[in-house]
Design goal:
The structure is a single chain. This protein is α+β, with helices and mostly antiparallel strands. It is 29% helix and 32% strand. It is built from four helices and seven strands.
Length: 153
């Protein structure tokens, strides 16, 4: 698997982010969707990675700098054709390693609270994320779960 920084211009990644956003809106009311579109993912302070194998997009994930050595995991998504193959685990491990290299002391995330997000929550738990209160600009929301992890640095 080749995991690399992505400029978000390829048709495959645009399609995957579009699918990701649609899925978020299908599972949560609009006011509870915190997924970022392509333009915001290209914004300052965000590094975006995509995972490829033999020219095929497997998945993606991003890291947003929140300041004070605190980062937020964003836009974790595995392509439908590659679910249950370890793509998300490898991407998450890569992002955690990169965050460590960059000196982050804490990583946090927001994900959904409904059954459709159970696999994501279990993945984050396996990687040492613990449930926490809202962080950054987030507020309590019955459709959101917040998790955080102290990094290896």
């Amino acid at each position: 698997m080749d995991i690399r920084i992505d400029d978000l211009t390829g048709k495959e990644i645009v399609a995957l982010i579009t699918e990701h956003l649609q899925s978020m809106f299908d599972q949560s009311p609009p006011e509870s969707v915190h997924a970022l579109g392509i333009d915001k993912l290209k914004g300052p302070g965000i590094t975006f990675w995509s995972a490829w194998e033999e020219g095929e997009l497997l998945g993606c994930g991003a890291l947003k700098d929140l300041g004070n050595q605190h980062g937020e995991l964003k836009s974790m998504r595995t392509s439908r054709q590659h679910l249950r193959k370890g793509v998300a685990s490898k991407l998450l491990a890569h992002i955690l390693e990169e965050a460590d290299k960059l000196g982050y002391q804490r990583l946090s995330l927001e994900t959904g609270s409904t059954d459709g997000f159970e696999a994501a929550r279990k993945l984050y738990e396996r990687f040492g994320f613990e449930y926490c209160a809202p962080f950054a600009d987030y507020e309590e929301d019955p459709y959101s779960v917040f998790m955080t992890r102290v990094t290896a640095s």
